[in-house]
Amino acid sequence: MSAFLKVSDMEFAYGEVSVLRGLDLEVEEGTISCVMGRNGVGKTTFLRNVVGLEKSSAGKVFMEGSDITQMEAYERAVRGIGYVPQGRQIFPLLSVEENLSVGLEAANTGERIIPENIFTTFPVLDQMRKRKGGDLSGGQQQQLAIARALVTQPKLLVLDEPTEGIQPNVITQIGEIIRSLVEEQGMTILLVEQYVDFVRKFAHSFQVMNRGRFVAKGNTSELDESMVKKHLSV
Ligand SMILES: Nc1ncnc2c1ncn2[C@@H]1O[C@H](COP(=O)(O)OP(=O)(O)OP(=O)(O)O)[C@@H](O)[C@H]1O
Ligand SMILES: [Mg+2]
Fold first, then answer.
1. Do 156 and 82 form a contact (C-beta atoms < 8 A)?
2. Distance 193 CA to ligand 1 centre (A)
3. Is the whole model's pTM more than 0.90, yes or no?
4. Is position 45 within any domain?
5. Helical residues (DSSP H) of the chain, grouped into ranges
6. Residue 136 Cα distances to 88, 127, 128, 139, 141, angstroms
7. Is residue 160 part of a domain?
8. 31: domain CATH number?
9. Cβ of residue 32 lying under 6 Å from some atom of ligand 1
10. The domain containing residue 212 runs over which residues?
11. In this structure, which residue's CA is closest to atom 5 in ligand 1?
């Protein structure tokens, strides 16, 4: 069986500065795959190329066997890619419900109703439907950002550092939520994450990026201290 998401030989530059230098990645359906790496190595740029917000200068992206390389970001969203950007980027002046409605636009189905299961998955958002996004705590905003990507019921969820700046109990909640999306709904997840314990606990496979190349990969059970020291510690 072919991988749910396949990236081959992806390259990208900001102007003259080469950032992605021939990346290959395969994510199996119904698994959580994690991209790790030090600050500035190109992780966010990679995700933005996967979701179509940047145009790669070379390489291909396949989803469920179809070539989506030429598709714009909105077409990829319609096709079933949900994206949670780094730093959450929720709308501070819009209410929780309004932020979620913005997420519905991405799927372009004309659907106007936020699926009720969003509020079962994130009970804290249910209590705060009318509150402004900017008045939520960091952890609540991260849950809102994830919920906003889920309202379109994506097949592939792409998250950029979901635990950044969040306290441990909310990190665990987020880990359990993404795990249940995979186990109960068969979703496929690609995330960038620097928090090694989180990766070990919740992800299935990992790849380490260094200066725009993947320099190590494997099953998260193989993510040992020597690897962390060599590729990840600062
Ligand atoms: N819009 C941009 N224009 C020019 N250079 C950029 C732009 N965005 C990022 N870069 C540069 O590209 C490189 C990769 O950045 P990127 O944000 O992908 O790294 P990252 O691995 O996600 O880092 P972090 O761990 O800090 O989030 C960095 O050197 C960064 O300065
Ligand atoms: Mg980043």
1. yes
2. 15
3. yes
4. yes
5. 43-51, 73-79, 96-107, 117-121, 123-127, 138-150, 168-185, 196-202, 225-231
6. 12, 11, 9, 8, 6
7. yes
8. 3.40.50.300
9. no
10. 5-89+155-231
11. 14
